[in-house]
Design a protein that fits this description.
The complex is a heterodimer of chains A (419) and B (420).
Chain A (H helix, E strand, L loop, with lengths): L1 H27 L10 H13 L5 E3 L7 E7 L2 E11 L20 E2 L2 E3 L3 H20 L5 E9 L10 H7 L1 H4 L3 E4 L7 E6 L1 E10 L3 E2 L9 H12 L11 H18 L3 H5 L3 E9 L5 E2 L2 E10 L5 H13 L4 E7 L4 E2 L5 H14 L4 E5 L5 H6 L4 E3 L13 E3 H24 L1
Parallel strand pairs in A: 3-6, 3-7, 7-17, 8-16
Antiparallel strand pairs in A: 1-2, 2-6, 4-5, 5-18, 8-15, 9-13, 9-14, 10-12, 11-13
Helix pairs in contact in A: 1-2, 1-3, 1-12, 3-12, 10-12
Chain B lengths: L2 H14 L1 H13 L10 H14 L4 E3 L7 E7 L2 E11 L20 E2 L2 E3 L3 H20 L5 E9 L10 H7 L7 E4 L7 E6 L1 E10 L3 E2 L9 H12 L11 H9 L1 H8 L3 H5 L3 E9 L5 E2 L2 E10 L5 H12 L5 E9 L2 E2 L5 H14 L4 E5 L5 H5 L5 E3 L13 E3 H24 L1
Helix pairs in contact in B: 1-13, 2-3, 2-4, 4-13, 11-13
Classes of the chains: A alpha+beta (419), B alpha+beta (420).
């Protein structure tokens, strides 16, 4: 066993320079979603896989949004581990506030900068590399390893992981999912709050802006609605004990990693008004306005309950109607699963980090596996300036996480299948 | 000829020349003059052709060559006051021709109406003033005082190169009183206009991923709170001169009738329109920027400064919000008891059998530019029918009443001034 570990660490050490170059190339190949054309970024990854002789396929309903699916069998039967990352990124946030080129992939003081450098090109690159290293060692492994690198995560769209779990379930579900979204390398995430996305349209007659008595204003009704929606944040949710326990145990780490307030936010309903758009000209009274709300639900409540509350608020406002853009049930995996143990032990050994299982505030594609009964875990680097100016990744931390990913996968495919 | 005989003569001319009036309005409407882009030369040519045929002098003032302004002067026989007539040649653009039942640039005369873009706002008013000017010129050897007709080519986009240019560079057009013929309703004489304060407020926060609501204040939610708080502007106490307050009280029912119930209340308050909101990029990003554009209308008697001070007080606790003023016009008003108001009301009574009310206007006209120079200014015109909408039109019978009212009022005001 220790020889397999040493072999893998030696491969990683030999590839380190190339791996940093891969991440730079990957960041320089833009893949903002929307609009979601990820072809050039995908080809950076497939070139790496091809160069290492591993088989792969490109799948998906939208040719501009290819998904990489690659898989191999070990030498003997065992468990099926699935790796998941995404190729698409947020659109560049606040382009005028960056100090580095968002598409430059520049390395400054050991940090690699760019849109998607943290979320999650670094994580996807780590999984692609680990897949290739273990492919080279496949005759010494048990079970099966599958890589999924998808192109439609940022909008929770239908063309990425959802397409794979719905149309290629036999190949991609497996026995356990390891996802590499950033967060903090001192935490492994076994659960996610569930996003509930709601669009609210307000329609009124509209008129000239001087005649404010002639028509109700769609923009003002929307402002009142936004204020009223705040009542969702006051709802108290009773968390399941397993989840509540990890939040209590991890509270100071959650607050350290995600800034003070995060542990409290974890167990509560949050409201983000992600979009508020209305009107055409300043001197016209708007007859139309649209709000998009991103509501995150903790474990212990359901989208149905929440939609009933939102519906009642919307019904209080003239001309307002609601439509659900996306909904999910909040779910969690077992915080005592063996994969959590592998990550904890390897993080301790490689970096001296004590890793705690905690739920996640943000959503990842891991939820699609959890929804289908597959234990799913997310482990990655510190999320640094995600969806903000100067998004970046610390390369020193990343290279440790790369090793922890690789060793944990190795151990899952060897130790667990032996037991 | 007595003043009454002159009045009878004017009414006879109007009667006899009604076909020419209608034909000219139709022709003027066919000469498209949408602004933007604002090339009004063909439409201006319709007016100058008429003046040429009538043998009346005029000059062109064209700071923009494609948007000439017309000034025509007429001197009475004896000294007196100087009346200035004002209309505009440019019209709103028409980008929805497919929704019209008729050609927007066809100038059709059908069903007792003239149809087309700009016929109501305000080609009918400009033609009315053009004819009034010509008829008064025929009586020049009997009239006291002086008449100047101004027809400008830049009204729809703010007036920098139209009325504003004339009042700033040709003091001759100021005169002692301004009569403007923008549409509104023939039952009202507009002696004032609300002012305007346009502001853009940008709320800026760091922004972050939408799940981490504890990490950054939300630009959209601060903006929503601000919108709610700014509504207090509509409750600011409004101070008006007693004459103005009385006129607006007397005209309240008529304002509500022509502009729908609530108009009289809005006239006498600061109104707040949130015309544009732009916040956020994507549902799951917590927005770091939200921009609000407000159009605030200031009642006659008040000032934009009062609105501005109230806004500053409301925004004092919001360091994330930045304000920029994008437009500012003070409210203007003339005395609702001015002689021109009496002249218009009497003329309308003579011509149409009813007395219009003196009210203020919610929307803006070029009359404010004369008021800003200290010249009393009044607006009287037809009903605004489908202005800036498909199937804009003018009812010919109503318009003829307005033509008569404007002509007789101008005539009687010149005499009344001379007699003072």
């Amino acid at each position: 066993m220790s020889s397999l570990r040493d072999q893998l660490l030696a491969r990683i050490a030999a590839d380190e320079g190339a791996l940093v170059a891969l991440l730079g190339d990957f960041v320089r190949a833009p893949s903002p979603n929307p609009p979601g054309d990820t072809r050039s970024a995908t080809s950076v990854l497939t070139a790496w896989i091809e160069a290492r002789g591993a088989p792969f396929r490109l799948l998906g309903p939208d040719p501009a949004m290819p998904n990489i699916l690659a898989s191999f069998e070990g030498a003997r039967p065992g468990r099926h581990l699935v790796l998941n990352g995404h190729i698409d990124t947020f659109p560049t946030a606040s382009p005028d506030r960056w100090t580095q080129d968002p598409l430059g992939g520049a390395i400054v003081d050991g940090q690699l900068f760019g849109t998607g450098a943290s979320d999650m090109k670094q994580g996807t690159a780590s999984l692609v590399a680990l897949f290739c290293w273990l492919y080279a060692m496949r005759d010494q492994l048990a079970g099966r390893l599958t890589l999924t690198a998808v192109s439609d995560e940022e909008t929770f769209g239908p063309n990425g992981a959802r397409f794979l779990v719905e149309h290629h379930a036999d190949e991609v579900l497996g026995d356990c999912l390891l996802n590499a979204e950033p967060g903090a390398p001192t935490t492994v995430r076994f659960a996610e709050k569930s996003p509930l996305w709601v669009a609210i349209e307000v329609q009124t007659m509209g008129c000239h802006g001087a005649y404010t008595h002639k028509s109700a204003s769609a923009t003002k009704i929307a402002a009142a609605l936004i204020e009223d929606l705040a009542e969702l944040e006051a709802i108290e949710v009773a968390l399941p004990p397993a989840v509540a326990g990890t939040i209590d145990a991890g509270a100071s780490e959650i607050d350290r990693v995600h800034l003070p307030g995060a542990a409290r936010t974890m167990g509560r309903i949050t409201l983000n008004i992600g979009g508020w758009h209305g009107g055409t000209l300043v001197n016209m009274l708007p007859g139309h306005c649209r709000i998009e709300a991103d509501i995150r639900l903790p474990w212990g409540t359901t989208p149905d309950t929440m939609l009933a509350r939102i519906g009642a608020i919307v019904a209080r406002h003239q001309g307002a109607s609601m439509q659900v853009m996306s909904r999910q049930e909040p779910r969690f995996s077992d915080p005592a699963h063996p994969m959590v143990g592998h990550i904890q032990r390897n993080a301790q050994a490689i970096a001296g980090w004590q890793v705690l299982p905690i739920p996640s505030l943000a959503g990842t594609d891991a939820r699609l596996w959890r929804e289908r009964g597959v234990p799913a875990f997310t482990y990655g680097t510190t999320a640094t300036n995600v969806a903000m100016a100067d998004e970046h990744t610390d390369l020193d931390e990343w290279l440790k996480v790369v090793r922890i990913h690789a060793l944990s996968a190795l151990h899952y495919l060897t130790q667990d299948s032996a037991s | 000829m007595s003043e009454a005989a002159e009045r009878a003569q004017l009414l006879r001319w109007i009667e006899v020349e009604t076909p020419e009036l209608i034909a000219l309005l139709s022709r003027f409407t066919r000469a498209a003059s949408p602004n933007p882009p604002g090339d009004t030369r063909e439409a201006t040519g319709v007016l100058t052709d008429f003046l040429d045929r009538a043998g009346l002098p005029y000059q062109m003032v064209a700071p923009l060559p494609e948007a000439p302004n017309l000034i025509a002067g007429m001197q009475g026989e004896t000294p007196g006051s100087h009346l200035v007539l004002n209309g505009h040649i440019d019209v709103f653009p028409c980008d929805d021709a497919h929704r019209w039942k008729r050609d927007p640039w066809g100038g059709q005369v059908e069903d007792g109406r003239v149809w087309g873009r700009g016929v109501s706002d305000m080609k009918n008013g400009t033609v009315a003033l053009l004819f009034a000017h010509a008829w008064l010129a025929r009586l020049a050897d009997r009239l006291p005082g002086r008449v100047t007709l101004t027809a400008v080519s830049d009204e729809e986009t703010g007036g920098t190169w139209g009325a504003q240019y004339l009042v700033d560079n040709h003091p001759d057009v100021l005169g002692d009183c301004l009569l403007n013929a923008e549409p509104g309703a023939p039952t009202t004489i507009r002696f004032g206009e609300k002012g305007l304060l346009r502001i853009a407020i940008t709320v800026q926060t760091p922004g972050c991923h939408g799940a981490y609501t504890h990490k950054s204040a939300s630009a959209t939610r601060i903006a929503a709170r601000l919108v709610r708080a700014l509504e207090a502007i509509t409750d600011l106490p409004v101070v008006m001169e007693p004459d103005v307050a009385r006129a607006l009280e007397d005209g309240a029912a008529e304002m509500d009738r022509i502009h729908l119930p609530g108009a009289a209340r809005v006239m006498r308050q600061f109104s707040l329109n949130l015309g544009v909101v732009r916040g956020g990029t994507k549902v799951n990003m917590l927005p770091g920027t939200c921009r609000l554009e407000f159009d605030i209308r200031v009642p006659p008697g008040e000032s934009t400064a009062k609105a501005r001070a109230a806004i500053d007080r409301i925004m004092a606790g919001l360091p994330e919000a930045d304000l920029e003023v994008t437009g500012l016009t003070e409210p203007t008003w003339s005395a609702p008891t001015h002689g021109m108001v009496t002249a218009l009301a009497d003329a309308c009574h003579t011509a149409c059998g009813f007395r219009p009310r003196a009210i203020a206007s919610l929307a803006a006209t070029d009359a404010r530019k004369w008021r800003a120079k200290g010249v009393p200014a009044f607006t009287y015109g037809t009903t605004a029918t489908n202005v800036a909408m498909p199937d804009e039109h003018t009812d010919i019978a109503e318009w003829l009443g307005v033509v008569k009212t404007l002509t007789l009022a101008a005539h009687s005001w010149l005499h009344a001034e001379a007699a003072r």
